[in-house]
Amino acid sequence: MFVFLATTFLAFLITPLIIRFYTKRKWLDDPNKEKHAKKTHKKAVPRGGGLVIFFSVLIAALLFLNFDKYLIGILLGALVLTVVGFLDDVYDIHPKWRIIAGITAGLIVVGSGIGIAYISNPFGTGVIHLNQPQIAFELFGKTRTVWILADLFALFFILWNMNIVNWSKGVDGQMPGFVSIALVFIGILSYRFIDDPTQFNTAYLSFIVAGSFAGLLFWNFYPQKILPGYGAGSLAGYFLSVLAILSGAKLATTLMVLAIPTADAIFTISRRIIAGKSPIWGDRGHLHHKLLDVYGWGRRRIAVFYWLTSLSLGILSLYLNTTAKVITMVVVTSIVFGFLIWTKLKTRSQS
Question: Given 1, 61, 163, 214, which is the most exposed site by the fewest CB atoms within 10 A?
Answer without folding.
Answer: 1
